[in-house]
């Protein structure tokens, strides 16, 4: 449905116009993308970067990206600046390396750089507006593109996406390289979630727990406050309402897993124990066609991801390192490799992934066509 | 040779009947398997589960599985219960995922779950009959099937079996996730073998050392007492006498390797330093046709596996974690990848592996046929 | 150009003769290799071993190997003996396994064994001429060949060389296995480079820093003195002057990276912070055709390799373990996987790698031929 064409043709009033606009803005916004292809380069770059921001949370919609950028600015302008710089650094490195244009403009080479930059800012103990940090942010962003470009042919053999492996690797290397007492780039140490805490004996505060579930969605972008997390959730909803439900569901399951392992209450309240589960749940939502079987799979993967995250956080926490999104990345990759025939038919090839609603729609059409063919 | 048919046809007395029964029970018991295919589902499941138990130690024989189950019951009924639960959890997960029926019924999806369950019980410091443990045992068993199903397409590219990678991964994650001071699922910490011990300065007790070699075979199932270890050795002997020799040989070599690195005497006496070598030796026995070259290879792999085990145990022991059978799994996988032409001709493709005796027999027949063909 | 034929044919005096001799000795010395093929086996073995020594530093020239051997003898005769033993152990293991003859005689199965042996000697705290060390050196050398033979089919899928993965793996396992307090094979612990040091507050000594850049080339063979390092640099120059420049450039970049992370001055002065960068830079020089794009890539890879080395050294240093050349091996492997079209056209297939000069020459000829063809 083309927004530009439809409005003048059907004079259906404000409501019709609003619905059209909404339909235009949701999903992948493919029309905008095709519309942009013969436009000015900086405009294309802006669209690519906004898509890149949304890619972090498995979306592909420039408007969602803009909403998330607003959330980051609301959370901390310094972080948002770092994130944008990392995004640009990794995107330009991809252009210099001569990566596929279509991939670059759909934001595939930006989101890892952005995440690295965001988390470098979060872990830095040098305070906000410490401008020397721009240097490692640029280098880190460029390094993620190197890794993306190198890992792609390896993972492609099994039709796997590169996902956030580069971000996780580069962040870990940066934090190990600099450490907590580096004179130029000192970092906060990460706390393991399993460490006993005196406040753990206090009563569990249920409203804070529920808020933690919601913050889990925001923690994908290292946002620990309510407003930005809500904005990010709206961004997900804009791309796909199903994914928004999955994000909250995964975060909730992850919080329950955290309770069962009695992690520190601060982890549950801040959403830190929720974001890997949210991502794990969403991966299944994006890469599998929705059905009750894949729904169970998404719950199972959220659980697996949550427990793996606790394990890795405990392990890396010994050295003061965070597990970032290793758990969701690893279990997400495993889930895409599953060979059981009850699930394999629902798996969408990596190159054909769109929004869950669109996938469901195409699948229904295809099934209907098949049924008609066999009926006749 | 079909047991059911042979006994009435040839009235050769008790001895003949006994030999037939023995031949029927040894090796892969393929007749039972084909016989079972049109039987009642629970009976098939029982056969599959018993085969699964035997798969842990590279066998494929339901009677061996029954013997091992008896050994486990003798060692500790609680452990045996946990093991069976893990086995069932992982087998049912495989059925739900829709894995290949033939693979499920031959026990390929059970043994990892069983091992995880057994070792969860061994490391739990909550005591026997702590019923809450049934929960992680079921989840852990299901997780191994996920991993098996996901790793299969990756390893299959190089014709490698999934082996016990899922068990090792899930056990490590579980132990890191829960730790030693978890209020619900506390664990014993694992001791590194290289830690200096005051008793190490005492004289080496040779009979205990020899007993340790035998216990090394039992330690594959975490059995540290003589009776069950002997039963397990009998189970191996029933499937293949060659493998039983290899198991003891590997355990012996591994113990010598332990002595050369002066590991704690308690490790040598308990068989803990023997079981990786035993498995490493057996892998070569199962996947290569017996000859003096592959015999040397099995000794080399037992050594490599033993030293790797000491290294990994020292490394993971720093964090109080066990190296379980990582060493044998890794070196076993490497040995199957060897490209030298002196060994490659003896390698049996993963799908065609049976008992060493059967392999040897088929190979001799094939060689004889080839020689005759070239003679004429 | 064939040395044996040319000298009698052209009586151009001493200068011509010297140039011919020089041309014969530089590059891959392919003539010697073909000349050797019908010679006595021990002579072939000597040539193969000398090539193996030079392979460590990405060369393929027996004369360079001889020069490096001289450097090692100058540094420490005991180390040189260990290195030769490791080289022989791994080469003979390759012959026993039946690896490809051509590969063995070109030294592909020797360099990992040699490096393991050298580093075992360096880390041993039992002093020189501790003859028991010959035992693990032989076993370690043999183990590297096992690993080389096993990793080859896996890495070959992506046209990657085995490189020094076996050396790094075996060395790490050996050091973890023995530890610092082993009664038979005690080791020195490795120091992390990031540890704060009182002397770090003193002024940086620039001449020592520049000397450290040069020592970085020697540290590839664990040589920490000026004379042997210079000899090794000459050996590189003999094979390819371009590579010699790249080695120094990489070491320099690596030292700057070390300064930016404020590693201990002793690391900078001893060349320990330089050798991974040197290797990282040389990898690009060997596997890519020289151009300004690949020149930038070599600088980027040297930086990446240097920072990765600091990170891994800090991480492994917690356990008293060295990062050896893991960083250069990992980043070097990633660089060979890059998919960007601006670089892919310059990548030389692993089987066709010769010296950078030869690669450049072939590429120019090929380009010229192509241009002529399109002109006509």
Automatic annotation (TrEMBL), chains A, B, C:
A Pfam match: UT
TM stretches of this protein: 56-74, 80-97, 104-123, 129-152, 164-185, 230-255, 267-290, 310-338
Region (Disordered): 354-376
Membrane topology qualifier: Multi-pass membrane protein
Annotated Gene Ontology cellular component terms: plasma membrane
Keyword Chloroplast in annotation: no
GO molecular function terms attached to this record: urea transmembrane transporter activity
InterPro entries listed in its UniProt record: Urea_transporter
Subcellular localization, as worded in the UniProt entry: Cell membrane
Keywords: Cell membrane, Membrane, Transmembrane, Transmembrane helix, Transport
UniProt keyword Transmembrane, yes or no: yes
Family: Belongs to the urea transporter family.
Protein name per Swiss-Prot or TrEMBL: Urea transporter
Protein species of origin: Cyprinus carpio carpio
